[in-house]
TrEMBL record:
Composition-biased stretches (Basic and acidic residues): 216-226
Cell location: Cytoplasm, Cytoskeleton, Cilium axoneme
PROSITE patterns: LRR
Descriptive protein name: U2A'/phosphoprotein 32 family A C-terminal domain-containing protein
Region annotated Disordered, chain positions: 216-247, 353-372
Entry superkingdom: Eukaryota
Pfam family, one: CS_DNAAF11_C
Gene3D superfamilies: Ribonuclease Inhibitor (3.80.10.10)
Family assignment from sequence similarity: Belongs to the tilB family.
Record organism: Volvox reticuliferus
InterPro entries documented for this protein: CS_DNAAF11_C, Leu-rich_rpt, LRR_dom_sf, U2A'_phosphoprotein32A_C
Domain U2A'/phosphoprotein 32 family A C-terminal: 112-130
Keywords noted in UniProt: Cell projection, Cilium, Coiled coil, Cytoplasm, Leucine-rich repeat, Repeat
Recorded coiled-coil stretches: none
Amino acid sequence: MISTLEEVALHQQNIEKIELLGQLCPKLRILYLQNNLIGKIQNLHKLKELEYLNMAVNNVSKLQNLQRCESLKKLDLTINFISKSGLLTLESLRANIHLEELYLLGNPCTDWHGYRQYVVAKLPQLKKLDGQAIKPSERIAAQQVLPELEAALLAELRAEGVDVEAAGEVEDDSLYDETGAAVAEVPETGYLDEKGELVRPWCAATRILEHREQEAANLEAEEKKRAGAAKPSLDSGPPRPQRHEAFPEIADTDRLYQKNEGKWEFSLEEAPDGGSLILEVAVGRFLDTSLIQTDLQPTFVRLLIKGKLLQLLLPCEVRPDAAKAQRNMTTGQLVIAMPKEDPSKPVTDVAKLRPKVPGTSGTASGYPAPSTSASSTLAGCVSRYGESGAAPAVAIGGGRGVRVPGMAVGTTNGAGNGSGDFTIKEVRRAAVKAVTGGEEDGDDPPDL
């Protein structure tokens, strides 16, 4: 919104310097700065569309830095401090070819006897001076006496001890290039005083130098801060894992590692009959099942729980297309039964097993062998408990690791062929009653 403003009123704000207006409001057409403490016209060179500038009742002593305001039509400098020597800076306003009105009432220069004729002759584009129209006859007469007025003005100033050349010098934002940006090289304006300290006069070049020095110091401090934040301290613990929106991609050449970013309690055991592996994960009873994703492959299983990855290498190959996953109705425990590819082959890589009770053989108790028929296969997404009272099923992506979105209930599509595309098969109410035995607690998971 600021960048599109065309009119701004900042009168009676005790402003001492004009800053940022040219950068923040390049579209300004009308600018009110009257009744402030501004001692210098500056930093307006980017206002190419400025038509009216009101700086009445300020501390301005020279007419300068308005050469690039090419659209300026009206300039009000009533009650400022433009002295008789300040009339030498009128020449800078010749660049403002559209300037029609100028107000200098209340300035010391108006006390000079040739003030009006001098201004009218110096600025032929003016149509009004101090609210009075300039007639053609007045302009012709002023042009005729201009040489005499210039000579008289210079003589009076020299008699008063004024440095005429210094009084006539004006700034035209020469420290800026055509785009309005500061030039690359700015000469040093300071000098060393008696104490050996650098002293700089307050000018546009000094402001640019100090700004660049401060900017370099800020960049250096920011780099140190960034380097300190990247360096781990002794008090800081391990970095927190980043939440995943989906399973990380695994390349063929990548080496798989065991991961438990969510620090979930889990167990991985062999079923009592030796025909499958049983994975139990304590995800909590109040965890929404929509926050759980599964990815089962022949040699590893991955779970994405609340964006935290649980990745486990399996001690033997399993059949993803015949696996089942369910949650306990009471505790919310997630149980995944994964049939082995070769049920007759015992598990030899026991280091990858994680028994519920440390020091045991790693064999699960109380889990019947899962059915390998297509009609009892469960896949898809984790669902809430249905009206039938059955324990919910959890998504199992098999074969190629495809995870099926949605909540379909029906038969499998190509189960057992390793395609990885599945739908949910509803768990029967009778199977749940057989496991719970009519008791209320239901600690054990339903029939697998």
